[in-house]
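seq/struct pair 1
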Amino acid sequence: MSDVETPPNNSAGEHRQFVHFSFYALDPVFRRLPAIEQEAARAELQNAIEDAGERFPIRAYTMHGVRADADFMLWKVSERLEDFRELGTAVMSTAMGGYLRTPYAYLSMTKRSQYVKGEGRSMHKRGQIVWNPDSRYLLIYPMVKTRDWYQLSKPARQGIMNEHIATGHQFPTVKINTTYSFGIDDQEFVVAFETDHVGDFLDLMMALRETEASRYTERDTPIFTCMSCSVEEALRSLGGAAIGAMEPA
């Protein structure tokens, strides 16, 4: 974490963190560069990301070959919003940054759920993200509820959410993390699920469609299926001449 003293980010005394999901897409022109230039550019970008990772937590994921509009993603958590800006500048200041674009980016914050008592199976504890370091996959999407949802009484919403939560508990291999974006980004929530079994997540989503809470979902796309990896692996998953050049004969 940064040595810079962070002022309180809410008046309720609840400790919260900023959370950012940045998705990157690589221009195919990069793969036509000389192999030695590609290798140097990858190393420079890897160093920039890993240097930032010494100050605040960063996890890397690849979706290259799975989605057409994004190749890799960085999931970042910090008490300082400025950390995300500084890393974004560092990434785009590298040689490889000139070939990257950011088709999607989601900003949110941790916050205790008003519908769940205790920590439950959520990955954030006391306002802090708690990752499963061994989880293979991350399924993530932004979500917006209808305005009708917020006009329901608190007891009515609690009853609907009790059914929703009970359905989720039927799938213990899927861990949910919900972060909040009200007023700080276009969506209301960013929902991320860690699992080793993508099929279990598919079954969970089908089951949730049958709950009453589903009636009040206005938008829950795009949905990204991400594979956990190191920063180096994420960059090498993009392919290119430098990768082929390093393969054994």
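seq/struct pair 2
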Amino acid sequence: MSRIGRSPIPLPAGVQVVATGAHVSVSGSRGTLERLVPPAMSVVVGDGVVEVKRPTDSAVHRSLHGLTRTLIANMVEGVSTGFTRNLDLVGVGFRATRQGSDLVLTLGYSHPIRYTPPEGVTIEVPAPTQIVVSGANKEVVGQVAAKIRSFRKPEPYKGKGILYRGERIRRKAGKSGKAGKGK
């Protein structure tokens, strides 16, 4: 059996799970998340725990078992504590500001980049070179962070760009300088 799929999902205080057929709804202090799970998987809500059961031991059902359990566990964690992604801006003159709920980035282009986050995601700028993306849905938070990073991906020669906090960029040497001169 799947080790991930077998383990029950503990429910923190204040989190409620409603499973009707293939539709799972999780509500908590940070909002409500809904998802359609594979119809073959059955979601059983017990006393303080949620368990995912599979009908057979076929390869398809085994692969969906752990996936379904992880998706529901992420929903439970999202509505109770939420998810955050931290980004750092590295480069001379690179900075971020907030105007209302929009994020305005100055990244060395001829124009500033304005980004409006989707509903349910908040963007904070604690310092001009730091961005914090937070929300209840792990997939959406990750997608927004990836979109912001795509405006100026880190380059390997000078290491400039938008990096995830803790990310290391493998640096390249660049040109060798005067190696070919003076025959």
